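dumping this here before i forget
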Amino acid sequence: MAFGAFGSTATSAVPVEPAVRRRSPVALFLLLPGILYLALFFLAPLFSLILTSLQQPSLTGDIGAYETAFRWENYTTVITQYGEHIVRSFSYAAIATIAALLFSYPLAYFIGVKLRPFPLMQALALTLVIAPFFISFLLRTLAWKQILSDDGFFVTSLKAVSLMAPDAHITGEPIAVIFGLTYNFIPFMTLPIYTSLEKLDLRYVEAGNDLYASPARTFFAITLPLSAPGVISGMLLTFIPAAGDYVNASRDFLGSTETPMIGNVIEANFLVLQNYPAAAALSIVLMATILVLVAIYVKRSGTEELI
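structure:
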């Protein structure tokens, strides 16, 4: 019975001729709102951001006054000055993405496979996964700041049983920032993996068991490859916003002056220092680095159709 899955797949593999694509005025008209939206809310701000990143200080010397120029040195300056923050941002984002994957995959597997015979329980579990979205991102992070504070029950308990030094802290340390990133983006990782596992044909798993494959071999040979699209989507949806996050690393939340990420530097240059060219150049560097990393990741994972 379990081998029927392979049989049905083999018989359905009939070559299909590609459909002839014709240019239609109706299709172009239907695409027009999307093209206008893309031009207005993405291309125009991006063009403005690039122009701002090339500006130079005004001859008047006023703070926050800049004039149009083509000062490419702005990019080398911000990379040299804030290289440590850039490396820290992508390191934190990579660790948080891996941690979120390790937590989310078993959770998504439990909901998508184990709870499949119980639709009510499955719906309830999915509701619990997306429940954090019902509360503000800032409020959730502030709540964790209180829980992990030095006077909180968690830290005082660890110190009471000598698992933490008396002068040790959690908030303000890199582990608190990475924990905040992991927690806040777990739903972005769980839901795509669940979508892939929920469609998993269990007859493939049964076939592996019929062939006396161990559970681990069945998982790595069948379950994980078939859920790879969800894993790839979840990692992209987690890594990209985590790299640009500026809330968790802020000293007003879980970070300190030792943990600023590139998002915090952009915020400080734009709102405090009024160094708009530096903030714009950092934004372009962040965007370009993410695009390169994502392209390499997608290329090496064998899903070039995503880019």
